[in-house]
């Protein structure tokens, strides 16, 4: 019996050594690895309106820091907020900070949020390419959201009833609930593009980043819609002008439907969440923002080489 035990333990030790040498252990390297600002594992919840730009930044971040494993989960604003409140997420990208009420659980735990502003986004109003209306007055949009009839706006199409685009416009219109007539919420941004392409006279509302960086499969929809100009009574000074959500109009405050994007970090430590927030706000990250069509929080510097040719 004693000899059998000796043989058993020797065999177990030999198998263990072989597993370690071949790398087939029961614990993966990322699980056992201590999380730092540039290494470890993290699930990042992202408002779908910011999905394209975060994908771009994460692709570069992960190529630089190969020990950092960040999983991007795209959800509407309401779902992202709920994930933070229920502690199924500790780091997220949203178009607003949490309210005091939403932060109650973290306050009880003594966790102070680290909120990082990294870009200014805008809502784009799109219509069918064949439409004769190329501009729209914001007050007419607000009328429809308030449940009133508009002479110029027939249908408003949103990506999702719980999205940040809806919440921003409801706030601007001074209402808390979506009107039951002439306002429609679909499944996602792709559905908005498709609906507007197939239904002349409708106005779709999407994040401008999706216009600049649409997936290849959406190109057939994007080609058949046009971006509408929107008035801005705060800067017009009696002269009616219309502005499109170009980078310069967003940066100059001419386009009225803008919002800031933030990284919300509730980890309570200097982990991957802080590493990602640091990267997206440094010069490399801000250059990616600039190329995406959004406005970076800090404009990257541009060096000009002067050559003295004689």
UniProtKB/TrEMBL annotation:
InterPro entries: PBP_domain (IPR024370), Phosphate_ABC_transporter (IPR050811). Keywords: Signal. Gene3D superfamilies: Periplasmic binding protein-like II (3.40.190.10). The keyword Ribosomal protein does not apply. It holds the Pfam family PBP_like_2. Transmembrane segments: none annotated. This is Phosphate ABC transporter substrate-binding protein. It comes from Flavobacterium zepuense.
